[in-house]
Design brief:
Elements (H helix, E strand, L loop, with lengths): L7 E6 L3 E6 L12 E6 L1 H12 L3 E4 L6 H13 L15 E5 L9 E4 L10 H6 L5 E7 L8 H15 L2 E5 L10 H11 L5 E5 H7 L11 H4 L8 H10 L4 E5 L5 E6 L2 E5 L12 H14 L4 H15 L12 H10 L4
Helix pairs in contact: 1-9, 9-10, 10-11
Length: 339
């Protein structure tokens, strides 16, 4: 990639939160006795993961003038993430998330995002951020669920496109953050002409393309299942036709697949591990993939790096706190027979 003389490798925009993870592994949510406190939020996690791998990262989020905001700021500053451009938002609360852990496939998650500080990011906050000094601008689809952060994010993607900063969208579909999943699809499709690289799971890709009028008779609960969105391969082709240069399909235990054009794809196998907690795996993948991309690696190697980071995080308790450092990822890959 170009823009080697930029001050920052990656700028991440979106939500941040205090994450309370159950310490009682396997316990039903009603039986949880205690929680561990971590820093979370998808773009925040990716900024930490990329920083631990060695990239120079900056975060654009909103924090309340509250102790939770202090908690998040303290952690991120210690990690070395540039926080100078993340404003405090007086009168608004820093977000919170509560998670139960019942491996291998039950992880009840509750968001507390009412009157939330990171939703209050504005176009002025974007103008104050170093978009033109960053090689990559990465944001999450959840940014588009509410104003004013929706307009601020659309403006940021448009501005990044104009100044030659590459734009990366992590689809990040959270059904409970939208009044209607079809609105999610409308929002995502509106920004795609300004996006270079999209990262998402099958369900997220399908949700982003959900607009078939024949589905309008479905109930809201049915619509909340992104799998009604249609054929994933067809939806990937539609996304690429809308201007996206690269689509990275996260495939869980099967690894990932990089789509470079209609019909052109590169498969990167995953790393088999025992799943402890799936939350944060996608963010770890994004951090590893972006690290490889910034280093100029080929698509296969960058995707394998993402797979390795994701595999490591699913064996750990938290999200940001569990992001691996470069040396341990490379050791993990070597022990699994290399790239």
């Amino acid at each position: 990639m170009t823009t080697h003389n930029r001050l920052y490798d990656t700028l991440h925009m979106g939500r941040s939160s205090i994450d309370l993870y159950s310490n009682d592994i396997g316990a039903a949510f009603v039986d949880i006795q205690s929680f561990a406190a971590y820093v979370g939020g998808s773009p925040t996690n990716i900024s930490v993961g990329a920083r631990r791998l060695g990239l120079n990262t900056v975060l654009l989020t909103g924090l309340g003038n509250d102790p939770v905001g202090d908690f998040i700021l303290n952690f991120l500053q210690k990690e070395g993430v540039e926080m100078a451009f993340s404003p405090r938002k007086p009168g608004y609360r820093t977000s919170a998330v509560v998670l139960g852990i019942e491996p291998p496939d039950k992880f009840p998650l509750v968001y507390y995002r009412d009157h939330c500080a990171d939703v209050e990011l504005t176009i002025d906050d974007v103008l104050a951020a170093p978009l033109a000094q960053s090689r990559i601008f990465q944001f999450a689809g959840t940014n588009l669920s509410r104003e004013p952060v929706r307009s601020a994010t659309l403006f940021a993607a448009e501005m990044a496109h104009q100044v030659g900063t590459e734009v990366v969208l992590d689809i990040d579909f959270r059904p409970d953050q939208w009044h209607d999943p079809r609105a999610f699809g409308v929002a995502i499709r509106s920004v795609l002409p300004h996006v270079d690289i999209v990262i998402g799971t099958d369900d997220e890709i399908n949700a982003a393309m959900l607009h078939d009028p024949r589905q309008l008779h479905l109930s809201h609960s049915q619509m909340s299942d992104a799998r009604v969105g249609g054929n994933t391969a067809d939806n990937i082709e539609k996304m690429l036709q809308m201007g996206v240069r690269v689509l990275v399909q996260k495939r869980g235990e099967h690894g990932s697949r990089v789509h470079l054009g209609v019909g052109e794809k590169i498969d990167a196998p995953g790393f088999p591990v025992d799943v402890f907690n799936i939350l944060g795996a996608g963010d770890a993948f994004a951090s590893g993939f972006l690290y490889g991309y910034v280093q100029g690696w080929d698509w296969y190697k960058a995707a394998r790096m993402g797979n390795a980071c994701g595999a490591m995080v699913v064996t750990r308790h938290g999200c940001s706190i569990s992001m691996p450092h470069l040396a341990e990822v490379l050791q993990f890959i070597e022990e699994k027979d290399g790239f």
